[in-house]
Amino acid sequence: MEPQEKSASSSWFTLMGRPLRRMGAIQWLIICGVVMVLAITLGTWLLVMQFRDRAVDAAERELANTAQLLSRHFDQQLIDLQRVHDDILTYMQAEGIDTAEAFESRMSTLAVHEVLRSKLQPFPHVGALNLFDAKGWLINSSQAWPVPDVWIAAISRNSLRASRYPTRSWKSAGAR
Question: How many Cα atoms sit within 13 Å of 146 on the Cβ side?
Fold first, then answer.
């Protein structure tokens, strides 16, 4: 019995109690098949993960490009709208409007309503350009004529004081 135990222990490896060097062709075929299946599975998993990483990187790059494009577009739209505000302020200065009473009386006319509408025609995404007096009452709008009685109740007292004493002349033009 001892010689048999020696021969079994002297084999390289054992598989299910049988030494590997004494396995038959069918057992080797099964082992090689299992190893190949594992190798194919591992290779497929690596390729899928690599493809996924590339797709995520491409999507991130595309999203960053889209965000940058949108931010540039919105910046341009805001600059264009600021030009409209500046045009209205220039119009007011050319008319010689320098007091709150003059602002309210001259800027509440149908002619100014038409000017406001014409200034916003190139911007269909802007709802309206509204002019408010120092008390918060709507005096003209590019949206509707005659102007409805609208009071801005949400304005705080500090911003009303700031609009009465502006650092830059008459910043009462606003768009929504």
Answer: 2
* Residue 124: closest CA among 143, 109, 107, 140: 143
d(CA 176, CA 142): 11
Separation between Cα atoms, residue 127 and residue 134, nearest integer Å? 22
Count, in order, helices (H) and strands (E) of the chain. 5, 5
pLDDT along the chain (176 residues), means of 10: 50 59 83 96 97 97 96 89 86 82 81 84 79 80 74 57 51 46
Length of the chain: 176
Peptide bond into 146 cis (omega under 30): yes
Cα separation values, 71 from 65, 76, 79, 174, Å: 10, 9, 12, 22
State the residue for tokens 């008390």. Answer: 135
Read off the pTM: 0.51
For residue 104, CA distances in Å to 71, 134, 139, 142, 175 come to: 36, 9, 7, 16, 18
Domain ranges of the chain: 2-59, 76-175
- Angle, CA 169 vertex, CA 168 and CA 173 arms, to 5°: 100
Structure tokens, 66: 């889209």
